[in-house]
Amino acid sequence: MRQEKIKLVPNADNATTNSMLGQQMLNKVPEVTIFFWIIKVLCTTVGETASDFLNVNLGFGLSGTAIAAGVLLAVVLFFQFRAKKYIPAIYWLTVVLISIFGTLVTDIMTDSIGIPLEISTIGFVIALMITFGIWYASEKTLSMHSIDTPKREAFYWLAILFTFALGTASGDLMAESLGLGYLVTGLIVVAVVVAITIAWKLGLDSVLGFWIVYIMTRPLGASLGDYLTQPPKYSGLGLGATLTTAIFLTAILVTVVFLSITKADRKMNKPNEPKIQKPTYRYSTLIQTIAVITILALAGGIGYYYRHAQLISSAATSETAIAAAANAGPYDDFIKIEQDALQSINAGDFKSASASADDLEYSWDQAAATLRAQNTEKWDTIDQTIDNVLRQLRAVNPDSASCVSAIDDSIAAMQ
């Protein structure tokens, strides 16, 4: 009797092939529930505050913090890839570290290399689209419910890294470069998330909606972190980067322990059933993707154009006012704050000097968009010196000589 050969039909997830070859793992990511988004926002906030804590308070600097975070991320990723199923502690530790590292990548590109946020935002969009394109061409799916092979997991974490870097760049572009502030930026992000949620209820592809919301939660977390760390006189809670990081890490730990016990995020964590995506479904998803990207690009481009025009107009008005004032310069207010900090340091009062650092950071952030529009090159130079002043004044054990040197350099750059 002649035996019939078994013919494997390619499908969206290649689940049949993997299962027969004994190579399929359990899904390596959690089910997308309310707990997923809670921890995601907590992680994005920690990515912002922890990088500030390591960079400024501990004095690691951007490069040192990036190296430390990169090494830890590599170690945790090693254990994540070795695992054969979703393990909450390892998975979410990876997300925390990749959040910190992604934030630092953007900060280094902006502060150390001098790449404009507009360029880095566009660059990360392109990098993310290329990643998704190669991922889909190879695996025929971008679903978070099918991360069950090492290749798909590699694509997944690369995409996650780019989403954090893109979220940082776009969030900083809106909040800082365009001068919208983190509150307005957060409200814009919430509006986008609500719109995507409504669109999903009306039939938007769930995978497309997931990745857009994943990107948007990064600037949302930064807005939350800014609100918690800013002093009360600047409409914040004044918790500081250290306490905020500790609180959020504790919250993440408690939630992860809860999920480990209840397994509430593993309802669908099992081998995927073979499923073929019909051509009509793929075509519909492609149309939706093009439409959503086009809408977001047009909205972002138009908003950027009008806000940038406002800043140019404001910068011209400021220059006119400065020219009319006697011996007044655009950086006089910041020089005065730094001189007050210098007096406090010379008197051995580092508590007052730290308070001056808060005033300096807030005032600089508020005026940065207008000053940058006046003279981008000078703004970049002064911004780096002010970062150094903040780093020295907020160090765990501040050194008088280092603080004085940083302030002198900053004042010289502003004169």
Multimer state: single chain
Q: Give the total of domains.
A: 3
Secondary-structure-based class equals mainly alpha
* Main sheet summary: none
Plain-language structure description:
- With 415 residues, this protein is mainly α.
- It has helices spanning 15-21, 34-57, 61-82, 88-112, 117-139, 150-177, 181-201, 206-229, 240-262, 279-324, 332-346, 350-374, 376-393, 400-414.
- It folds into 3 domains: 16-270, no CATH class; 276-328; 332-414, no CATH class.
- The protein is built from 14 helices and no strands.
- Helix 2 runs antiparallel to helix 9, helix 7 (181-201) runs antiparallel to helix 8 (206-229) and helix 13 (376-393) runs antiparallel to helix 14.
- The longest helix is centred in the C-terminal third of the chain and has 46 residues, at 279-324.
- It is globular and about 65 Å long.
- Residues 1-24, 268-276 and 321-326 have low confidence and may be disordered.
Descriptors:
single chain; 415 residues; mainly alpha; 3 domains; 76% helix; globular
Short recap of the structure:
By secondary structure, the protein is mostly helical. The protein contains 14 helices and no strands.
Helix and strand layout, with pairings?
Elements: H1 15-21, H2 34-57, H3 61-82, H4 88-112, H5 117-139, H6 150-177, H7 181-201, H8 206-229, H9 240-262, H10 279-324, H11 332-346, H12 350-374, H13 376-393, H14 400-414
Helix pairs in contact: 2-3, 2-4, 2-8, 2-9, 3-4, 4-6, 5-6, 6-7, 6-8, 7-8, 10-12, 11-12, 11-14, 12-13, 13-14
